[in-house]
Amino acid sequence: MNWLDVLMIVFSATAANHLGLVAAAESVIRHRLPVLNCPKCAAFWSVIVYGVAVANSSLFTLNSSLQIFSAAFLSAWSAIWLDLLMGIIDKLYIKVYDKIYPTTDTTDADA
């Protein structure tokens, strides 16, 4: 199992949820996607599917299955912290943006 692929899966699952892409897809298809709607669940199940797809069926042993499940649990845990980090970065960005471009009331006071 390639760890760079696992990192990309975790980032993609977390970013898709954080940016609202999963919510937009749910509104378009008019169905809930409960597994994809959670960054932890999306990262966990995506890594499991990736690990099983990559594992060769003749070499699929107890050791490789433990490695897949360990990677899936680690990815779910890291997705939580990555989502928190993305939220903190959003708050900092909004704070800096409001200082650079302050919102002023441009409506006419007499109107």
User: Unreliable stretches, pLDDT < 50, 5 or more residues?
Assistant: none
Helix content: over 70%
Shape: elongated
Average pLDDT value? 88
How many structural units, i.e. domains?
1
Q: What profile does the largest beta sheet have?
A: none
Structural class: mainly alpha
Strand content: under 5%
* Oligomeric state of the chains present here: single chain
Number of helices: 4
Using only C-alpha atoms, the radius of gyration works out to: 20 Å
Distance from first to last alpha carbon: 66 Å
Order of helices and strands: HHHH
The number of strands is 0
Overview of the molecule:
It is a single chain. This protein is an all-alpha fold and 111 residues long. The protein has one domain. The chain is built from four helices and no strands. Helix 1 (3-18) packs across helix 4 and helix 3 (39-54) packs antiparallel against helix 4. The mean pLDDT is 88.
Gist?
This protein has 111 residues and is mainly alpha-helical.
Layout of helices and strands, plus pairs?
Layout: H1 3-18, H2 21-29, H3 39-54, H4 62-100
Helix pairs in contact: 1-3, 1-4, 3-4
